[in-house]
Each structure stands twice: as structure tokens, then as C-alpha cells.
Amino acid sequence: MDVALLLNPFFSSVPSPSPRFSRVSSSILRNPGRLRHFRSIRRRALRFACRAGTLVAGSQREEGSSSHALKGAESGDLKSWLHAQGLPPCKVVLKERSAHDGKHRTIHYVAASEDLQAGDVAFSVPNSLVVTLDRVLGNESIAELLTTSKLSELACLALYLMYEKKQGKQSVWYPFIRELDRQRGRGQLAVESPLLWSESELSYLNGSPTRAEVLEREEGIRREYNELDTVWFMAGSLFKQYPFDIPTEAFPFEIFKQAFVAVQSCVVHLQKVSLARRFALVPLGPPLLAYKSNCKAMLTAVDDAVQLVVDRPYKAGEPIAVWCGPQPNSRLLLNYGFVDEDNPYDRIVIEASLNMEDPQYQEKRMVAQKNGKLAVQVFQVHVGREKEAISEMLPFLRLGYVSDPDEMSSVICSQGPICPVSSCMERAVFDQLVDYFTSRLAGYPTTLSEDEAMLADGNLNPKKHVAVQLLKLEKKMLHACLQATYEFINKLPDHTVSPCPAPFAPQLK
After folding, report:
1. What number of CA atoms fall less than 13 Å from residue 53's CA on the CB side?
2. pLDDT category, 262, cuts 50, 70, 90?
3. How confident is the model at residue 102 (pLDDT cuts 50, 70, 90)?
4. Is the CB of residue 225 less than 8 Å from the CB of residue 253?
5. Residue 262 contacts residue 161 (beta carbons within 8 Å)
6. DSSP at 318
7. What is the DSSP secondary structure assignment for residue 47, as one 8-state letter?
């Protein structure tokens, strides 16, 4: 099913809930039983109102605006319509590229309409065309309360998206809905987030921790879905205009997940604004703008608008890119459906934990904490800095191998992450790392060379293509870690020393 986003400045003028309603809402949040009772009453009242014909989608003013908007939608593209709604002159144009397969419509993207220099303002979208939670919910306090105790900003925006989608052509913002229907939450490579992949398509990610992250994120979305009715009760001033049932009865989970993923791929994280405005849906923003890891341009809030200042020269017709933040490729694929081969922020994670069966576990945990580490420590291995990551892990791993009580006493009294061990114990630490990296690489169904051959062939479907890209880059980092470990081994004074037994060695995963 197509999923669309809606931006509706009408809600900037929605009255805030009365103090009495706010007190009732807070009481409901603290009392789940009362929430269920209030939900039942609200549902019966809503159905009675619908039967009586007293609950309508909007006022006459809204319906008049909708008619005007529809006429504008038929006379030009999204950009022309935005100009008619108050978008000032800008230096961008919407262009079109083909999708990777014939099942989907072509994708639009934002390109320079003229030659641009670094520092030029490409466009400036007035706040009247930007939607944030304080506008959607009509009250900044409610927005902050919901997103700090119950729901994420993305879930609230997704709920808004779904109700407005039901309005269809009656929506004031139908042209924008139509454009995002075309995009279908697809990123610049026309690939949806793995959250929308089938089970067989998820098998493309076998061997990668990203597959588990996808399933974990889906469970998180389901938990938020189960809390959606809270928004309905707390933001009655918004939802009273929709002649539909409460969220979990109006929308099945799969529809909510599609809406959530669409918002996730389009939302802009604004800086230096209030909590209720930090996540925004911006026309001409993503997914019409491409994300790049090595770009520095960002959509920023300035005065009464959100603007984009380009960070590099562009020729007329070239697609314009923005920075997507310091995200690894696993997150780029999960959020936006693409992988960046030149991502300087790419990384993998190694989790090391002290052995809880170790008789000296408590002492080792205390030493680890003294040196800024936890008993279960996550180490980030950044691309190009794999050897540094191994060096950072060594003191923690050495600590786990200490078994002599006298050595442990010396470690406790020492300053800094110093843990003197014998050469054979050092070899044991490195051998454990070699086994770990070798095991992780063996967990993938293909080798690095096979991945490179598949990508060179050019016949992969788009989803498998980005999945193989991700797996290839992960394997490159693991191979670099393995190579760095062998370099450390080669520097040991005696290569013939047999590794020492370590009954309580730390665990790696």
C-alpha cells in the first residue's frame, strides 16, 4: 500500500486542550484501567457522532482551501504548488529518474536549477509549510510529555500521516501527499528500508548483525503501535476533526509500520530548536534530497523558515545532497534504504564482557569501572581505524585473563589501564581475537571476493544489491581487524610460546 506524508499548517491554530482535559489525560496515563474505560466511552461517543452526522472532516474554510489546493495540484508539479502556497523563489528544480525495476513509478529528486556556489541558499521553506509535533498536537507541553514517556516523535508523526492519508483528496495538502505516494518511502536507490522486506529478502542480510537490528526495530515499532491510543486521548483538539475510529482500531499494525518507515526516511532532525520542533517534515527535503555521508550541508532552522545552504558547487541539473549525520552503513540501510561506499562514519560493534563465573569478577569489574569501562563493554570499530580499536580493547581483555591473586592485587593498585601479563598470556589474548574475527567472517554465507564478484556482475535486484554492499563493507572491516591482530602477534618476543590456559577468559560477541 502506498504511504504518504502530510504537512498541514492548519494545526498551528488549533486551541490547546483545557486544563481539565490535561488533568484527565495525565490521570489516564497513570491508570491503564481507566485508559481502557475512557477508550470505550470515546469510541461509543465517536460512533454515535458519526451516525448523527455531526462529526465532519473540517470546517467550510478548510474545504474551500482544499478546493483551491486541488486546482493548484492539477496545474503543475509539487514545486509549482509550493510556490502558490508561499514558498519563496529558490534555486532548485524537481527532476526525474527511473526506478530500478518496472514495478514502481519513477522517482523525483531535487536538483540545482542554476549553477550554485558553496554558501548559496538553495531554498528556504517557511515554517507555515513545515510540520513539527508542537503543530501536529497543538500543544508543545503535550508533545514533550508524549515523546518523553510514551512514544517517539516518529510514531506521533506517523499517526498524523495515517489520519491525513484517510482524508484523500479532501486534504489541503493533497499535492504533497501525491508526490510522496510516488516516492513510497524509497531512498535515492529506490530501495525501501529492510523493515518492509519480506522474510526471504531479509535472508540477504544473513551473517550481519543488521538482520537482528531489523527485527528488534520492528518489535519497538509494535510496542509504539500498542501505545497509539494515548495520543488520541491526549490530543483530542487535533483528532476531533477526523471521522475515524481510534488508532489501533482504525489502522492495522502493518499500515502503521509502513507509515512509520515513511516518516523515518523523510524526517529532518533540526538543531537548536525546542524538543517539540526537533523532528520536522520539510517539503523539498528527504527523500527528494539525497543523503551523503561526506556532505556538510544540513537543513537548518533560521528565524521563520527551514533553509538549505549548499556546501559545494553544483552545476545546473545536478542532484543536491545533504548530510545524514554520523551514521554507520547499517543505520543508513535501516533508516533510508541505501549504503554509502565512502562513508567515513561506518563502523562495526564488538561486545566484550568479563566472565561472571570468575572468582575475581567483582574486583575486575571495579578495575574496569575505574578506567571508564563496564563489565559488559561495547567497542566501536571505525572504518580505517581498526588497529586503534584493537589497541583500545587489549587492556580490557588482558584484565579478563588475570588469574593470580597477587597479580590482581597489583592491578587494583595500579594507575591507568595497565595490566602486566606474560608473553604467553598476551598470545592467548590475541589468539582469542583471531578466533573471534575468523568466526564472524565464517558466519556470512559468502566470502568477500564472492560479494565483489556479485556487485561487479550488475544483475542483482536493488534490495540484494544494497545488502551485499553492506556485507562486503562489514567483511572488509573484519578482515582489517584480523590483519591488525596478526601484526600484533608478529611483534611478540617469542612466537614459539604456547598460549596459557585461561579458564575465565572474557567473552566476545
Report:
1. 0
2. confident
3. low
4. yes
5. yes
6. P
7. H
Residues in the chain: 509
What is the residue whose three cell numbers read 526537533?
A: 278
pLDDT at 59 over 90: no
Q: Which residues contact 453 (CB under 8 A, 6 or more apart)?
A: none
Mean of per-residue pLDDT scores for the chain: 78
Please, are residues 115 and 315 in contact by the beta-carbon 8 Å criterion?
yes
Cell numbers given for 82: 509550493
Query: Reading across the β-sheet that carries 268-269, which strands appear in turn?
Result: 131-132, 279-281, 268-269
β-bridge partners, 323: 292
Residue 482 carries which side chain, given as an amino acid letter?
A: L
Contact between residue 279 and residue 267 where contact means Cβ atoms under 8 Å apart: yes
- What's residue 239's pLDDT? 60
For residue 224, the SS3 value is helix
The contacts of residue 275 (CB under 8 Å, 6+ apart) are 143, 144, 147, 148
Mention every residue, 6+ apart, whose C-beta is less than 8 A from residue 60: none
**Can you give the pTM of this predicted structure?**
0.79
Please check whether residue 287 is in contact with residue 188, taking contact to mean a CB–CB distance below 8 angstroms.
yes
Comparing 334 with 28, which gets the higher pLDDT? 334
How confident is residue 185, by pLDDT bands cut at 50, 70 and 90? low
| Residue 440 pLDDT exceeds 90 | yes
Contacts of 105 (CB under 8 A, 6+ apart): 99, 182
Cα–Cα distance measured from residue 262 to residue 265, given in angstroms and rounded to the nearest whole number: 5
Which of the listed ranges 109-113, 180-184, 194-198, 470-474 does the model predict with the highest average pLDDT? 470-474
> Do residues 229 and 39 make contact, with C-beta atoms less than 8 angstroms apart?
yes
Asked if 379 contacts 389 with a C-beta cutoff of 8 angstroms, the reply is yes
Phi, psi values for residue 237, rounded to 5°? -65, -25
The Cα 433–Cα 309 span in angstroms is 46
* Distances 493 to 116, 406, 487 between C-alpha atoms, Å: 59, 24, 13
d(CA 3, CA 183): 9
C-alpha grid cell for residue 166?
484517510
Residue 491 to residue 498: CA distance in whole angstroms: 15
pLDDT score recorded for residue 139: 65
SS3 (DSSP) at 212: helix
Give CA–CA dist 395/412, Å, rounded.
13
pLDDT higher at 424 or 224: 224
Query: Peptide bond preceding 287: is omega within 30 degrees of 0, i.e. cis?
Result: yes
Between CA 114 and CA 366 the distance in angstroms is 61
Contacts of 432 (CB under 8 A, 6+ apart): 397, 505, 506, 508
